[in-house]
Design goal:
The chain is an alpha/beta fold and 370 residues long. It has two domains: 230 residues, Aspartate Aminotransferase, domain 2 (3-Layer(aba) Sandwich); 116 residues, Aspartate Aminotransferase, domain 1, CATH 3.90.1150.10. Helices cover 37% and strands 14% of the residues. The protein contains 13 helices and 14 strands. A seven-stranded mixed sheet has the order 1-9-8-5-4-2-3, sandwiched between helices. Strands 7-6-12 form a three-stranded antiparallel sheet, with no helix packed on it. The chain has a two-stranded antiparallel ribbon with strand order 10-11. The longest helix is centred in the last third of the chain and has 18 residues. It starts with 6 loop residues before the first helix and ends in a 10-residue tail after the last helix. The mean pLDDT is 97. It binds pyridoxal-5'-phosphate (PLP). The site of pyridoxal-5'-phosphate has 15 residues, from helix 4 and helix 5.
Length: 370
């Protein structure tokens, strides 16, 4: 069996370092925020080339607070895509603002930048691109449109730790960048976690207050805040793992090169790395006109797959009151029908990639079984 994801394979070689980090936190008594979280914030911001990092308890919380720190609230509109994990849109709704969707580019799976300007109204406050699957959205046109119309850009980089747009790491390109450290992400905690990064010191201060009950100092609540604090253990664990992120990214990129080679003749559309992008392959999604059949075939060979995501956000029952209907975002709806995510993680072996690819070709006879 080849699993879709194998988190235990990543843990084994770093076990000693992780246990040391955990023991340090347990001995320190700093179980919420504390020195390790503060150190992780500056190390992660530094890794991206950004000034400030504010660690929180999930990627969803990061998005929620980034929107609040951008001054977004009731009556405002935020432009984003319906082809994303639901949290992108949920966070906009938490603030009372209205998500306004534009379709995706079918090659990159990210925001179709040619559709943004038509979606801008006097109520638009921000553009929220998603670096889906680890591929950066086309940021230059997005930033230019935002500048022209006086809008902020908030990046959803939850799937794109270390991805680059024209040589610059994503999350540091807009006014605010949001990451998730959900265990399955490219940089994952051993629990929930997230961070907002920014170069704006005032917004960083506001984020620090908002995550901690809105307090400027103990029991002085100058804002209506939340309990979105990161745990000390997660900060210490993420510091250990951040040091390996680039090596893991190289592993993912090598697996993508191998898939690209083995799947050349297969009847699927392979992912495209856009000319401006350094893709980090959080997800390796192929397209198939008969996705159900392909998934079933792979299952019979013991290959686990995933679908990211089968229902676009504008067609989810929970978001029906946004007023969108089927047919409005044809590229998103087609992608939702066709994409299939193949196993992708740094510890995957070349022979496993060859086996998965052979299964896609319905021809595994020449590859060793598992
Ligand atoms: C994972 C993810 C989130 C939410 O992160 P959580 O840590 O699960 O709250 C938001 N947006 C995208 C695109 C994601 O993949």
């Amino acid at each position: 069996m080849i699993p879709f994801l194998d988190l235990k394979a990543q843990y084994a070689p770093i076990k000693d370092d992780i246990q040391q980090a955990i023991n340090r936190v347990l001995e320190s008594g700093q179980y919420i925020l504390g020195d390790d979280v503060a150190a992780f914030e500056s190390e992660f911001a530094g890794y991206l080339g950004a000034e400030h990092g504010v660690a929180v308890n999930s990627g969803t919380s990061a998005l929620h607070l980034a929107l609040l720190a951008a001054g977004i609230g009731r009556g405002d509109e935020v432009i984003t895509v319906p082809f994303t994990f639901v949290a992108t849109v949920a966070a906009i709704c938490y603030t009372g603002a209205h998500p306004v969707f534009v379709d995706i580019d079918p090659r990159s799976f990210t925001m179709d930048v040619t559709q943004i300007e038509a979606a801008i109204t006097p109520r638009t406050k921000a553009i929220l691109p998603v670096h889906l699957y680890g591929q950066p959205a086309d940021m230059d046109p997005i930033l230019a449109i935002a500048r022209k119309h006086g809008l902020l850009v908030i990046e959803d980089a939850a799937q794109a730790h270390g991805a680059e747009y024209n040589g610059q790491r994503v999350g540091s390109l807009g006014t605010l960048g949001c990451f998730s450290f959900y265990p399955g992400k490219n940089l994952g905690a051993y629990g929930e976690g997230g961070i907002v990064v920014t170069n704006d010191a005032k917004r960083a201060d506001m984020l620090r207050m908002l995550r901690d009950g809105g307090q400027a100092r103990k029991y002085h609540h100058v804002l209506r805040g939340y309990n979105y604090r990161m745990e000390g253990l997660q900060g210490a664990i993420l510091r250990v793992k951040l040091r390996r992120l680039d090596a893991w990214t190289e592993g993912r990129r090598s697996r993508a090169v191998e898939y690209e080679r083995y799947l050349k003749e297969a009847d699927v559309v392979r992912p495209v790395e856009m000319p401006y992008a350094r893709h980090v392959y959080h997800i390796y999604a192929v397209r198939s006109a008969d996705r159900t059949e392909l998934q079933r075939t792979l299952q019979t060979y013991g290959v686990q797959t995933g679908i990211h995501y089968p229902i676009p956000v504008h067609l989810q029952d929970g978001y029906r009151d946004l007023g969108y209907v089927a047919g409005e975002f044809p590229q998103t709806e087609r992608a939702a029908r066709e994409v299939l995510s193949l196993p992708m993680y740094p510890e995957l072996s070349n022979i496993q990639v060859e086996f998965v690819s052979a299964a896609v070709h319905h021809n595994v006879h020449h590859v060793h079984a598992f």
